[in-house]
Amino acid sequence: MKPEFSVIQLMLEATWVVQAVVLLLILASILSWAAIFRKGLLLRRVQRLSDEFERDFWSGGQLNELYQAALQRAPEASPTERIFASGMREFHKLRDRRVTQPDALLDGARRAMRASLQREVDALEANMSFLGSVGSVAPYVGLFGTVWGIMHAFTGIGAMAQVTLAVVAPGIAEALVATAISLFAAIPAVVAYNRFAHDIDRAANRMESFIDEFSNILQRNVAALGQPGAPGASGASMSTATAGPR
């Protein structure tokens, strides 16, 4: 009759060092899975909200109406919408200070949007370093537990007069459990890190493209408002329609 294999029993009989390593790896795995689920939900939400905002933005509405809507739902706005709001806010501040030079208006709006872009990317990258650390460090932590367990097993074997496989196997098995758990913690973290890094890069590129396109729209609107007899000196008639179809 084969003896029943039980990982829990092996861990209960393992040395305290191996037990501590396994507990640390299990904790890291739980935290990394929690971070994976949070990050996945966040990126999907960002994608959905960005799609909704850009659909409204490119429908040809008035910029001020979009700006007021962005201010009202600021906590729930997409990163792209917050970037848009920061550019419009700076643009209006400069206009209120009677800055009329087109270059100064556009440069101020661009700087504000670039600063907002950096904040949004930093927020998207939160917890990414933790996933990277788990993916890179967990195998070495598990290897330490394995080496310690094997060393302890061979130390005990050396004190025995007669050694059989039944005596050696449990000690080796409990040591290898640490390696198995370290891989269980590291592999999902590495896969998630690579996937999320790719998604964040795409989101950042999308926001940078929006900044360039919105800057072109502002440039066209400023040029139109600066013409003699042009209506809407306050910027109320500024529209995304001047950009043409996307």
Detailed description of the structure:
This protein is an all-alpha fold and 246 residues long. The chain has one domain (16-227, 234-243). It is built from seven helices and no strands. Helix 6 packs antiparallel against helix 7. The termini are far apart. Belongs to the ExbB/TolQ family. One of its GO terms (cellular component) is plasma membrane.
Order of helices and strands: HHHHHHH
Total count of helical runs of at least 4 residues: 7
Total beta strands:
0
* Count of separate structural domains: 1
Largest sheet: none
Q: What is the terminal separation in angstroms?
A: 73 Å
Summed over residues and divided by their number, the pLDDT gives a mean of 81
Query: How big is the Rg?
Result: 29 Å
Strand content: under 5%
Which spans have pLDDT < 50 for at least 5 consecutive residues?
A: 228-236, 242-246
Estimate percent helicity: over 70%
Structural class label? mainly alpha
Assign an overall shape.
rod-shaped
Note the topology.
Blueprint: H1 7-13, H2 16-57, H3 63-72, H4 79-96, H5 102-124, H6 128-158, H7 165-225
Helix pairs in contact: 1-7, 2-6, 2-7, 3-4, 4-5, 4-7, 5-7, 6-7
Main location: membrane
Domain MotA/TolQ/ExbB proton channel: 78-208
Subunit structure: The Tol-Pal system is composed of five core proteins: the inner membrane proteins TolA, TolQ and TolR, the periplasmic protein TolB and the outer membrane protein Pal. They form a network linking the inner and outer membranes and the peptidoglycan layer.
Note the main attributes of this structure.
Tol-Pal system protein TolQ; 7 helices; disordered C terminus; cell inner membrane; mainly alpha
